[in-house]
Amino acid sequence: MRIIEVTDSVSLKRDLDAGTREQREAVNAIIEEVRNRGDQALFSYTEKFDGAKLDALLVEEPEFLAAYEQLDPGVLKAIREAIGNIRDFHQRQVQQSWMTTKEDGTILGQKVTPLDAVGLYVPGGKAAYPSSIMMNVIPAQAAGVGRISIVTPPQKDGTIPASVLVTAKELGITSIYKVGGAQAIAALAYGTETIQAVDKITGPGNIFVALAKRAVFGRVDIDMIAGPSEIVVLADENANAQYIAADLLSQAEHDERASAVLVTPSQDLADEVKAEVIRQLETLPKREIAQASIQDYGAIYVTKDLEEAVNVTNELAPEHLEILTEDAMSLVGRIRHAGAIFVGPYSSEPVGDYFAGPNHVLPTNGTARFSSPLSVDDFVKKSSVISYSKQAMKQNGASISALARLEGLEAHARAIDIRLEDE
C-alpha cells in the first residue's frame, strides 16, 4: 500500500467503464431481441448465459416456502431487524404535498406523487445480495410506489438463493422473475408477456447491466451508473490501526478496482496501518481481489495537519467516509462531500451497508460533490400547482405580458391580455 505525502491535488476518480464497442453492440442486440420476441428471448438468453432451462419466469409460492425452510433462524432474525431499521430511517424522508394561499386568492403548491411502477435488479451468480433488496425496495415502499418487481438471474438449477427470496417475501414482494443481464433490463423497460414494464429501474449489476441501463434511460428512469466501491478513512494519531486496516479491506474485497484510502496527519499511524493491512490480507478469503485493489487503487495520504486532511477528504468526495479522530463528531460539519459519513470507532462501514438504516446505494467516483444516496425522493415525482384568482390576474397580468413580449412570444402575451380585456 503506497504512503504518499500530499503535495498536490488528489482524486479517487477512475474512468467509468463504458464497455467495448462489441459489448455495447451485444447489449443493443439483446434489447432489440427482447422487444421483438418477449418471453421467448428471455428463456433463450437465460439458458445461454446462466445455464438454466426454465419453464416459467415468475417465482412461485412453493419456492418461497422452501426458502424459509433453508434459511437459518438467526439470519432471518437479522433480516427482520435490518428491515425495521431501514424502514424507520426512510419513513422519515417522506415529503407531503403542500399548498399556500395568498391574500389575492392565488393558490400555489407542490403535489408529491409516487411512481406507478419500479423494477429492481438484484445481481446473482455465486453471491446473493439480500441487502440490495432492502435498500431499493424499502424507500420505494415508503414513497408509496404501487408496483415493485424484482429481476435476478437464476442459478443453474433454476433456483434463486433462499436469502433473496426470504428478504423479498418479508418485504411483501412476490413479483420476482428469474432473468438477469441486459435482457432483464430490457424486459423491465419495454415489458414482455410475463413482465410488465416499469417507470424506473434501480439496482447494481455487471457491465452488461450497466450498459443496458444506459441504453434504456429516457424510456425509463434509472438510479445511477455506479463506479467501483470506495472508502476513505480520515484518522488522527489516536485511531486504532487494526480497525482502519479491517475497514479498508472491507471495501477492497468488493472488486479489484475498489479504492481504499487512509488520510492522516500521522506518519506513525500510516506505517502501522500499512503493516496491518499486509498482516490481515494473509487470512482474507478474497485475498487476491483485495490485494489487487490495495495495490492499484489503495493509498495512504499523509498530510501536514488535520486541517489539510479534511481538505483532502473533501477533494476526494468519497462514497464512504469514516472519521476516526479524537473528537470525530466535531469534524462532521466540515465535511462537504461524502455519500455516507461514519463517525467514531464503532461505526464501521458494514454497519451502514447492512443494518443501521441509511441507504447503502451511494454516489461513487467523486459524484458525492453533487449527488446523494438513494432515498424516498428517488421514487416520487413532484408537480407544481398554480391557481390564479381574477384579482391576481388583474394585479399581475400586465407584468406577465411585458415579460412575454420581452422574449418575443406575442401569443403568450395575448393569452394574458385577452383575460385583462375581458375584465
UniProtKB/TrEMBL annotation:
Pathway: Amino-acid biosynthesis; L-histidine biosynthesis; L-histidine from 5-phospho-alpha-D-ribose 1-diphosphate: step 9/9. The active site is at residues 319-320. Keywords: Amino-acid biosynthesis, Histidine biosynthesis, Metal-binding, NAD, Oxidoreductase, Zinc. One of its GO terms (biological process) is L-histidine biosynthetic process. The keyword Amino-acid biosynthesis applies. Substrate binds at residues 229, 251, 254, 320, 353, 407, 412. GO terms for cellular component: cytosol. Binds 1 zinc ion per subunit. NAD(+) binds at residues 121, 183, 206. It comes from the Bacteria. It catalyses: L-histidinol + 2 NAD(+) + H2O = L-histidine + 2 NADH + 3 H(+). One of its GO terms (molecular function) is zinc ion binding. It is an enzyme of class 1 (oxidoreductase). It holds the Pfam family Histidinol_dh. PANTHER family: HISTIDINE BIOSYNTHESIS TRIFUNCTIONAL PROTEIN, HISTIDINOL DEHYDROGENASE HDH. Belongs to the histidinol dehydrogenase family. This is Histidinol dehydrogenase. It comes from Alkalihalophilus pseudofirmus (strain ATCC BAA-2126 / JCM 17055 / OF4).
